[in-house]
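[agent] plan:
  1. take the single chain provided in the ticket
  2. run structure prediction with default settings
  3. attach structure tokens to the ticket
  4. add a short note for the reviewer (M.T.)
[agent] executing step 1
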Amino acid sequence: MHPVKKIEIIANSFELGKILDALDQSGVHGHAVIHNVAGKGLRGDTEDLDHTMLDNVYIIAFCAPDLLKPVVDNIRPLLNKFGGTCYVTDTLEIRSVRCVS
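[agent] step 2 finished; step 3 output follows
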């Protein structure tokens, strides 16, 4: 196992491409996206936005700890301009290099 940073972003789906580009430019080349995320935040419920261009997305990505600063430098301006939240936590990755069938 080795340490990695888990990056979780909840943002407007309209900005998904910009956020994924920013992650890629930061050296984070893998991610998962969950569309149509509903919930409640500081601004209230978001479930009334279903099936519109304003749906929220949940993005999860992992990176080496030394890549975190470029990620924050690239993601923060997008979140400041378009809204959204980003959480970073420490976690461990178990890397599998050999599949046994």
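[agent] step 4 note for reviewer: The helical segments are 16-25, 68-82.
[agent] ticket updated
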